[in-house]
């Protein structure tokens, strides 16, 4: 059995300063080792291996942790809203589409009713009748959206092209 001795005032002061960073179990082990004649450094290394390292006092960080969590959640919510807002603004400022345009929305005939900052409203002609479809601006880019320019326009057949060419060659076509 090893002899135990009293700690000097200097050792007590050093341990007191040191206890801010470590658990009570760690400090108790260090005191025991120092009473057995080990130096502060030796005691510290042994206690670190035997008992563990740092004391983490989460209670003093509750407010900071709560604020951090609230900031992260608020930031994520703001991110989603701002992305939707920017996409809505981009769609609204897009000169190719405006309110009142007739379009094909995923293959269904529709009309753009209102382009909002977060949601765009389409009037859709379907088998159920005329319905309004509300689409988040985040999803507009992933939709197949085609503008109807002229409903009565059709592609000329080969015969029609030949007839137009013949009229041009004969000089009878006044369109050119």
Structural class: alpha+beta
Q: Strand arrangement, largest sheet?
A: 4-3-2-1-5
Overall mean pLDDT stands at 83
Per CATH, the architecture of the largest domain is Roll
Q: Cα distance, first to last residue?
A: 116 Å
Q: What is the name of the CATH topology of the largest domain?
A: SH3 type barrels
Number of helices: 6
- Main β-sheet, in a few words? 5 strands, antiparallel
Tell me the number of strands: 5
The helix fraction, in percent, is 40-55%
Net shape: rod-shaped
Percent of residues in beta strands: 15-25%
- Determine and state the CATH class of the largest domain: Mainly Beta
Unreliable stretches (pLDDT < 50, length at least 5) are none
- How many structural domains in the coordinates? 2
Q: How would you describe what is shown here?
A:
With about 180 residues, the protein is an alpha+beta fold. The protein has 2 domains: about 10-55, no CATH class; about 55-175, SH3 type barrels. About 45% of the residues lie in helices and about 20% in strands. The chain is built from 6 helices and 5 strands; from the N terminus they run H-H-H-H-E-E-E-E-H-E-H. The chain has a 5-stranded antiparallel β-sheet. Strand 1 (about 100-105) and strand 2 (about 110-115) form a beta hairpin. The longest helix is centred in the middle third of the chain and has 32 residues, at about 60-95. The protein is rod-shaped and about 125 Å long. The chain starts with 8 loop residues before the first helix and ends in a 6-residue tail after the last helix.
């Amino acid at each position: 059995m090893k002899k135990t001795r009293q700690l000097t005032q200097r050792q007590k002061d050093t341990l007191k300063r040191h206890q801010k960073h470590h658990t009570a179990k760690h400090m108790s082990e260090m005191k025991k080792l120092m009473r057995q004649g080990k130096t502060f450094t030796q005691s510290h290394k042994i206690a670190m291996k035997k008992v563990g390292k740092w004391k983490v006092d989460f209670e003093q960080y509750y407010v900071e942790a709560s604020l951090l969590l609230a900031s992260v959640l608020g930031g994520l919510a703001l991110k989603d809203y701002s992305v939707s807002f920017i996409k809505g603004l981009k769609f609204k400022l897009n000169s190719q589409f405006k309110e009142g345009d007739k379009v094909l929305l995923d293959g269904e005939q529709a009309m753009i009713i209102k382009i909002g900052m977060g949601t765009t409203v389409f009037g859709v002609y379907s088998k159920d009748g005329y319905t309004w479809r509300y689409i988040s601006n985040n999803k507009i880019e992933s939709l197949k959206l085609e503008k109807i320019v002229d409903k009565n326009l059709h592609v000329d057949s080969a015969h029609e092209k030949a007839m137009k060419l013949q009229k041009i060659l004969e000089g009878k076509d006044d369109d050119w």
